[in-house]
């Protein structure tokens, strides 16, 4: 709900695509700056406590933004600052939540646990995307932001019931932050398949953030309508739910190879937006992209949890996220000027091509093809 509400709240203040890119880039940039520290904190402290704190900060920032939008007092600087606060909070929640699952289930159940976890997340996103589109259409984006703030309050309450110990060593024996970051970096670079996939996702996420998530709403305003765009995003989350059910039943030895091959489907939505932006086709391509996204997501998380030591997992996740979204702020900033120079259609076609090329690079990697879906105490190079 929040991403739809934020985009259209900004567009109600200014129609500038470049300004929209600046706002969403502020969130991404703050996320980048704090991600590594978030990984260290999540490996030092009980991860559920990190998630409670992150939820509280997110609820506050989104709640304040909702009030400003609803009262008509919001400005572009306010959008930028509060988006940055929300991005900072997310930098702490992502490594903590990602590393929490293997502390609650045995190794042989991790693939199913990850699929069930993503099923729950994506099921809630279906209602959020649909409700977000309707709220924007009938009441305005401010109420979507308010509902998002409430959801963070509820999330923090739920996380407070989780009871797992801190994964790190005792406080008196902990090394410094820089030393812990070096240990996490060593784990990250020692496995070629990890950094290889992350490098590919530098381009995949940049193409998605700049193309689909910035130019998609622009196309909605000019071609298909805001309500239809909400249903397109809802179709993607329906596909993600379906994909989670598929991932629950898949039993293949080279799960990661299957996952990265599915990334090619991400090209469908920008391609349809560029060539034939009809709502029914956009919903189909979004559904397929969501289904395939889940195959990659479950495969990736399960592979990391199988092959990275638990007490270093949050730091590896933070390096993973940092690398994966490194180019996102730049993409969000330049997509406006680029689309004005080359045209929206050409820019969307370029984004689709990036998804296909990145998929080919991952599938072609011998290291990726060698990763097996079995727990291992030894590094996999």
Descriptive account of the structure:
The chain is an all-alpha fold and 381 residues long. It has a single domain, classed as Up-down Bundle (Growth Hormone, Chain: A). It has helices at 2-13, 17-44, 47-70, 76-100, 110-138, 141-159, 177-189, 192-224, 226-249, 255-261, 268-275, 279-307, 313-324, 328-342, 344-363, 366-370. The two termini are 39 Å apart. The mean pLDDT is 84. This is MFS transporter. It is a multi-pass membrane protein. The chain crosses the membrane at residues 20-42, 122-143, 149-172, 193-216, 228-248, 255-276, 282-304, 316-335, 341-363.
Secondary-structure blueprint of this entry?
Elements lengths: L1 H12 L3 H28 L2 H24 L5 H25 L9 H29 L2 H19 L17 H13 L2 H33 L1 H24 L5 H7 L6 H8 L3 H29 L5 H12 L3 H15 L1 H20 L2 H5 L11
Helix pairs in contact: 1-5, 1-6, 2-4, 2-13, 2-14, 3-4, 3-6, 4-13, 5-6, 5-9, 5-12, 7-13, 8-9, 8-13, 8-14, 8-15, 9-12, 10-12, 11-12, 11-15, 14-15
Main features:
globular, Growth Hormone, Chain: A, mainly alpha
Short description:
By secondary structure, the chain is mainly alpha-helical. It has helices at 2-13, 17-44, 47-70, 76-100, 110-138, 141-159, 177-189, 192-224, 226-249, 255-261, 268-275, 279-307, 313-324, 328-342, 344-363, 366-370.
């Amino acid at each position: 709900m929040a991403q739809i509400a934020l985009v259209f709240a900004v567009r109600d203040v200014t129609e500038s695509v470049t300004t929209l890119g600046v706002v969403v880039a502020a969130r991404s940039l703050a996320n980048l700056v704090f991600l590594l520290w978030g990984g260290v904190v999540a490996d030092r402290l009980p991860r559920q406590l990190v998630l409670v704190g992150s939820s509280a900060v997110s609820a506050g920032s989104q709640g304040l933004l909702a009030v400003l939008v609803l009262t008509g007092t919001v400005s572009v600087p306010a959008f930028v600052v509060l988006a940055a606060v929300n991005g900072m909070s997310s930098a702490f929640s992502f490594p903590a939540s990602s590393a929490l699952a293997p502390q609650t289930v045995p190794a042989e159940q991790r693939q199913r646990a990850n699929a069930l976890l993503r099923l729950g997340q994506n099921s809630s996103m279906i209602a959020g995307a649909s409700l977000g589109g309707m709220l924007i259409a009938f009441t305005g984006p401010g109420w979507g932001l308010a509902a998002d703030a409430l959801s963070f309050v509820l999330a923090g309450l739920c996380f407070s019931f989780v009871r797992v110990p801190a994964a790190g060593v005792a406080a008196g024996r902990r090394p410094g932050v820089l030393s812990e970051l070096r240990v996490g970096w060593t784990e990250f670079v020692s496995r070629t398949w990890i950094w290889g996939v992350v490098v590919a996702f530098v381009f995949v996420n940049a193409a998605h953030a700049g193309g689909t998530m910035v130019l998609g709403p622009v196309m909605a305003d000019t071609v298909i309508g805001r309500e239809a765009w909400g249903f397109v995003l809802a179709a993607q989350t329906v596909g993600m739910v379906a994909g989670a059910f598929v991932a629950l039943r898949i039993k293949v030895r080279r799960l990661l190879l299957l996952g990265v091959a599915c990334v090619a489907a991400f090209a469908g939505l920008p391609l349809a937006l560029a060539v034939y932006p009809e709502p029914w086709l956009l919903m189909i391509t979004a559904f397929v992209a969501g289904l395939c996204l889940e195959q990659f997501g479950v495969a990736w998380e399960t592979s990391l949890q199988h092959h990275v030591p638990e007490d270093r997992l949050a730091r590896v996740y933070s390096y993973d996220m940092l690398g994966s979204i490194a180019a996102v702020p730049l993409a969000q900033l330049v997509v406006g000027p680029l689309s004005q120079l080359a045209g929206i259609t050409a820019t969307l076609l370029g984004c689709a091509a990036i998804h296909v090329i990145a998929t080919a690079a991952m599938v072609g990697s011998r290291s990726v093809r060698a990763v097996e879906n079995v727990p291992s105490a030894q590094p996999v190079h």
